[in-house]
User: Fold Flavodoxin family protein from Paenibacillus xanthanilyticus.
Amino acid sequence: MGIAVLYGSSRRGGNSDLLADRLVEGKEAARYYLSGSRIEPIIDYRHTEPGAYPEDDYRSILDGVLGADTLVIATPIYWYGISAPLKLFIDRWSQSLREDRQGFLEAIRGKRAYLIAVGDDEPGRKGLPIVEQFRHIFDFVGVELAGYALAEGNKPGDVLADAQSLAVIDGWRLTL
Assistant:
C-alpha cells in the first residue's frame, strides 16, 4: 500500500508537479506521469457489442492506483478544466466499471485523495468546477476527497510564491 501520484501536466517539473512532489517529499510514492504514458481514449461499448479495449499503459497505471491507500492528483488548469492526459485516464474508469464493476469499486473504495490544480487566471475561483468534478467522481466510486489546493502559477516555479497553497500542502504532509 502507499501513495500513488498522478501527474497530469504535459511538462515535467511544472508547477503542479512541484506541489505534488512537495507533498510526497520523503515518502515512498509510486509516480505516474500521464503525459509520458500511452493512454488511448475510452471506447464506449455501452450500447454496442463489446469489442477489445486498447492495449496501452492504462491497466498498469490503474493497478498502481488501486494498490495505493492515498492518491495525489496534480493537474494544471487548462481552459478551466483538467489536463487531457488526466481526463483520458479518468474516462477509462468507465472501462474498468464495464469489465468488472464490483471488483473495480471494491478496489478503489475507501481510498483518500488529494487534488492539486494550478492555474494563473484566478484559480481559487475558476478552478472550483474541477473540485466539483472530482467530488462527483469520488462520490460515485467511494473515494474520500481529503483536500484540494487551487494554486496560482504560470511560469515554472511561480507556484512557490503562493504561500497559501504551500501552507495547505505542508499541512497535508503531516497527515500522509
